[in-house]
Recover the amino acids of this structure.
C-alpha cells in the first residue's frame, strides 16, 4: 500500500491576522460592572473568524460568542452572540467586573471543573467536529486578542486603532482523489472522516495572554462528521477539515485516515516524509489518492422482518386463546418458546405435559405436540416440562427437544428427562434418562 503522498508547503490559510475592532466603554452605575462593546471587522483570507465563506473569506457567524478574561481567578465573561451588520462586522457586548487589562478569546467556554485563574481559561478542541466540506468547524478555531484597557468610568474610543486576534490552533485539510478501478468512489458521500496521529491531536487547553498551553488532556484521534449527502468524497472542490493542536509531526511518524460511507470503509496510513512543524495558524494540506486496496465494501444491512406474533387483546393471558383437541391453554405457564421453519413451540411449565405448536404461517393453526411418552417425573414431582429447544440433524432437519428440571424426587439417585421428537411432533417422543 502506498504511504507517502503530496504534502504542500504549510500555508497560513488560517494565519494570525489583524481584525479591526472598535471598543466603546460606558460606566454602569452602582452594579460593580462595566459594559463593553467590541466590534470586529470582516476581512478577507487570511484572517481571523470563523468559517470559510463561498468567497474564500473567513467570516463571523451570528452564533459566535467571545469571552473576556484578565488573568484573575474566576473572571471569564461571556459576550452576547455576535450582531453582524451588512458589511460582515460582528459586535459583541459584555459586562466585566472591574477596570483593568482584558483579552478577548474565541470560542467562549465555561468548564465547571476548571475555573479561570492566572494561567488562563480552559477551552476544548473537540474530538468530534462538525465542519462543512469547504470550511473547518468554528468551535475548533482558538483565538486570543491583544490586550485592551477598560477604564473605571467615562467613555472612550480607540478608533482608528485596531485590536489584533492571534490564531492559536492549527488545521489539517485532507483532500481525496479517486484512483480506484472504474471510479468506484464517484458519487460516494462521506458520513465521517477520522484522522489518528501518534500525538494528541485535540484536547483541553488553557488560553491566556501568552497564548495556548497544553493540551492538558487529549485524544490522538479526531473525527469530522457530516450530514447525509453533504460531503462528496472525491469532489475536487471539497475536503475534510480538522482543527488540531499545534505540534511537530515527526519524520516517519504516521497519520491514519479512516472514511465511513454508506458503501465503503476506507483506511489509509500516511507516513510523514519529513518532520513537519504545525504552528498556531498553520494549515497542513494533505492530498490522498485512494486505490482499490484502500477500500472495503460494507456488507448490506440485514433486513429483519416480523413473521409471527400473538398479542393479548384483553386482560386475559394470551395462552388462554390457544385450543386444540378440546384442550385450552393455561394462563401463566408460558416459560420459553422454541421455533423452527414451521411452528412456534410453547411448553406449559409445571405439571402439564402440553406443548403447543402454532403455525408460523397461520397463527390460527394450533395443535398439540404428541406427549404420549412424557412421564410424570420432574422437580419435586411437579415440574414435568420446562424448556424447549430446536436443534438440527446433520441434514438440517429440525428436531424438537424438551426437558423437565432434571430431578426425580422419588429416586435415590435422581435423574432427568430429555424428550426428543426425532420423527416429528405428531409421533411419540423418545425419553432419554440423564444422570444428574
Amino acid at each position: 500500500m502506498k504511504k507517502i503522498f503530496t504534502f504542500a508547503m504549510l500555508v497560513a490559510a488560517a494565519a494570525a491576522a489583524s481584525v479591526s475592532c472598535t471598543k466603546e466603554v460606558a460606566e454602569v452605575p452602582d452594579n460593580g460592572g462595566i459594559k463593553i462593546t467590541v466590534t470586529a471587522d470582516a476581512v478577507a483570507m487570511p484572517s481571523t473568524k470563523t468559517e470559510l465563506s463561498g468567497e474564500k473569506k473567513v467570516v463571523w457567524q451570528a452564533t459566535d460568542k467571545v469571552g473576556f478574561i484578565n488573568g484573575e481567578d474566576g473572571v471569564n465573561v461571556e459576550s452576547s452572540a455576535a450582531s453582524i451588520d451588512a458589511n460582515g462586522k460582528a459586535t459583541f457586548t459584555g459586562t466585566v467586573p472591574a477596570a483593568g487589562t482584558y483579552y478577548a478569546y474565541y470560542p467562549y467556554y465555561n468548564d465547571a471543573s476548571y475555573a479561570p485563574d492566572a494561567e488562563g481559561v480552559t477551552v476544548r478542541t473537540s474530538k468530534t467536529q462538525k465542519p462543512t466540506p469547504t470550511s473547518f468547524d468554528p468551535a475548533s478555531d482558538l483565538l486570543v486578542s491583544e490586550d485592551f484597557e477598560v477604564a473605571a468610568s467615562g467613555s472612550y474610543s480607540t478608533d482608528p486603532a485596531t485590536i489584533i486576534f492571534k490564531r492559536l490552533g492549527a488545521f489539517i485539510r485532507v483532500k481525496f482523489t479517486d484512483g480506484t478501478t472504474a471510479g468506484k468512489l464517484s458519487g460516494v458521500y462521506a458520513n465521517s472522516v477520522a484522522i489518528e496521529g501518534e500525538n494528541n491531536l485535540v484536547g483541553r487547553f488553557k488560553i491566556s495572554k501568552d497564548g495556548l498551553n497544553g493540551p492538558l488532556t487529549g485524544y490522538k484521534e479526531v473525527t469530522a462528521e457530516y450530514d447525509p449527502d453533504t460531503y462528496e468524497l472525491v469532489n475536487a472542490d471539497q475536503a475534510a477539515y480538522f482543527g488540531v493542536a499545534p505540534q511537530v509531526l515527526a519524520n516517519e511518524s504516521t497519520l491514519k485516515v479512516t472514511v465511513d460511507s454508506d458503501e465503503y470503509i476506507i483506511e489509509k496510513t500516511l507516513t510523514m516524509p519529513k518532520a513537519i512543524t504545525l504552528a498556531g495558524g498553520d494549515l497542513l494540506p494533505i492530498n490522498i489518492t485512494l486505490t482499490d486496496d484502500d477500500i472495503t465494501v460494507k456488507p448490506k444491512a440485514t433486513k429483519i422482518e416480523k413473521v409471527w406474533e400473538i398479542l393479548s387483546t384483553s386482560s386475559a393471558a394470551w395462552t388462554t386463546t390457544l385450543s386444540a383437541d378440546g384442550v385450552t391453554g393455561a394462563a401463566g405457564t408460558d416459560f420459553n418458546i422454541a421455533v423452527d421453519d414451521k411452528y412456534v413451540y410453547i411448553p406449559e411449565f409445571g405439571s402439564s405435559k402440553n406443548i403447543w405448536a402454532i403455525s408460523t404461517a397461520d397463527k390460527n393453526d394450533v395443535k398439540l405436540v404428541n406427549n404420549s411418552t412424557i412421564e410424570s417425573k420432574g422437580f419435586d414431582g411437579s415440574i414435568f416440562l420446562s424448556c424447549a429447544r430446536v436443534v438440527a440433524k446433520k441434514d438440517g432437519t429440525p428436531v424438537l427437544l424438551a426437558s423437565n428440571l432434571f430431578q426425580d424426587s422419588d429416586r435415590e439417585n435422581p435423574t432427568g428427562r430429555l424428550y426428543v421428537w426425532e420423527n416429528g411432533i405428531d409421533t411419540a417422543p423418545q425419553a432419554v434418562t440423564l444422570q444428574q
Remarks:
- The chain has a mean pLDDT of 83.
- The chain is about 0% helix and 40% strand.
- The longest strand covers residues 170-178.
